[in-house]
Amino acid sequence: MSCEERYRQSLEAALGDAGAARVEFDDVAGWAASAGAGPENPLGAEVWVFDADLSRVLLVRNPWRGWVPPGGKVELGETPREAARREVREETGQDVDLHALPAAVAVRSYHPAHPATLGLSYVAIADPAAPLTAEPGQPVAWMSLDHAWESCFPDDLFRMRGHARWLAGFSDSAAAPGAS
């Protein structure tokens, strides 16, 4: 399979999940309309890993972005969902089950030197007592949703809080639409 075909496969999966996301931020339709050029339009995936009480989220301290959800680039031929699970494993040591539906889709640049890209935010519930294994130079920690943290994406806290409140509206977060 060519590089272009693998990119198309990843892009189709991303746009399918983007359409299923609970919330859309930014100009996703505009990005999608211009994304046909090829692999120079990267895709991103992250996971909002909440504790069962929906009061904390698992974050990674990135050297230039501050505290952010575990995530990264979707590799060619990989679905955003596969990338999200892989990134959580690589950055935190956790093997999580993602809710079936993404929490959000946004268009943003993850690095000052990189173009804006489509980013999907998935959700998982994990046990804070489970051991964490950080990548070198990128500490990982459970952070309270009640307190702000240093991040180049300050809106993320409010977006995660909003999704946690939405999940809390169900008797159990596993009963929420899209929970696995």
Automatic annotation (TrEMBL):
The keyword tRNA-binding does not apply. It comes from the Bacteria. It holds the Pfam family NUDIX. The keyword Zinc does not apply. One of its GO terms (biological process) is ATP biosynthetic process. One of its GO terms (molecular function) is bis(5'-nucleosyl)-tetraphosphatase (asymmetrical) activity. Residues 40-168 form the Nudix hydrolase domain. Keywords: Hydrolase. Belongs to the Nudix hydrolase family. This is Nudix hydrolase domain-containing protein. It comes from Winogradskya consettensis.
